TrEMBL record:
The name this protein goes by in its record: Uncharacterized protein
Lineage, top ranks: Bacteria, Pseudomonadati, Bacteroidota, Sphingobacteriia, Sphingobacteriales
Superkingdom of source: Bacteria
Amino acid sequence: MKNVNKKSSTKELNEVKEGDIIKDDTGKKGEVADIEILNRKKETQYYYKIKNDGTILVIK
């Protein structure tokens, strides 16, 4: 299980792939079904769609 949060390195966030089990600081966890990465101004937003449990968002 990989922990993802705003303190995670960009390399760690980019290495997450579909099928990985991830967990965030709020306790939400699950298997990644889809990933969307958006670059906005000076930040990067990582949206990890979790199978049957919504989305985990990490803003870096």
